[in-house]
Amino acid sequence: MRSMAIEASLEALAVRRDTIDDEVGGGVLTAEILEECGRVDQLIKEGPVRHPDTDPLNSADGNDGLIFGLLSDLVHPSHKKYYQAIRAAIGRQHLEAVVDTELPARLLSKEDIPTNSGLRRAEDCVKAANHVPSHLQGSNASRRSIIELIQKLHRWLLGKTVVADSLAQACSVLYHSGRRNLPAMPSGTKAVTLEGDKIAKIGNMSNGQGAFPGDSGDVWDAQNVDSIKAELAQKDEEIARIEEELRELTGTDGASNEAVGDDDDPMDAMLEMARVEMGSLEEIKRVAEEEVNRIEASIEASRGSLAELEMSLIREWKEALDNIEGEVCKVRQQRDTLRGKREALEADLDRVRTTLTSQESNLEELRRALEEIVDEEKAMEAELAATREAGEGAAEELEARVAEAGARREQAATRLHEAGQQSKGIVDRCNELKAAVTKEEHRLQQLRYRHMQL
Fold first, then answer.
1. Range of the domain at 207
2. Residues 201 and 324 in one domain
3. Which of 73, 123, 162, 355 is buried most, with the most CB atoms less than 10 Å from its CB?
4. Burial letters for 186-223: b for 16+ Cβ neighbours within 10 Å, e otherwise?
């Protein structure tokens, strides 16, 4: 008898679950569901709720994650595309954007967007709405409780909604957020449409495939996630198998009651063991789901750290290039300065050489004049010796002329000595200029070698 009661209760729960599925999934719209749809549509028309702090579905610190998007084109809360969009937004542990074409983009400002936190709380809310029948099995929850739960979820979504005019605008917001670090979208944010298409930061769409070309840096993590998802699928199959066995045991229990009577204690024990095993499998499934979420979060964190490392390497590379360019500019300036000095010294050397040539010409003229004076003096002495016998008057005149010639000779010798000293100074100056030019050429050669090294 007890097994028959269990079977009847299971059948009643199945009927109730199917009824709730039909009501929530849009198959049968009761008056209460339609009334709730009207209230949600009214909330959508009134616009987003600024800060629903009293909402029990919010996180404790009030900093929930965001679901960006428009809800104005939805027929009713149980619309299939609506749940698809929410699953796409939450299932990959991202803050996503559900975009459409109706409301104005007046909320894309810094003060209207809280920090990125509370994502797990949002996921719990969506799971509670998407799996209402399974959560209510074995409880005494009424249809009103289901409606209130969905209403709370929709209020939370409306309170955490940022509006974009169009898909192109959402792409633009994501693009500028990724390139300029604007506060409109947090790092790692992606977007989905109501069709489930993904939008990357640069505005490209993947047609619902999720990953983008070039994202091959987390192959091992992706394989690990796939293995855990396969394990989850296996656990789901085991749960389904246990439920099938439970149904078979329930049928066997009904047949044995006719033959044996009221002795159904072993069957109750088996049912209890099956329930315990189902509970343990559900716990294993929950742990595996948490592990999948943790691995996906670590993948996203690794992507963020890799992006930061790439940016730091780019900054260091640019700084090194700037330093090298600065050193090259300094070396070029020094080279130009030394070239200018060298040209000036070469010009001075040319002027000194010209002066030395003119001084040598003057010295040669002075030597010729001195030789002429000496020859004239010798001629006068000879004439004096010849005419000394002729008379004393002529001798005195000749002596005066000889004295005058001697004074002229002394003056010419003094000028010759001065010209020789000046020529010597010019020669010394030329040697100094040659040494300076050689030194500057050596420095210029060193700068050329350093420039080649840079």
1. 17-215
2. no
3. 162
4. eebbbbbbbebbbbbbebebeeeeeeeeeeeebeebbe
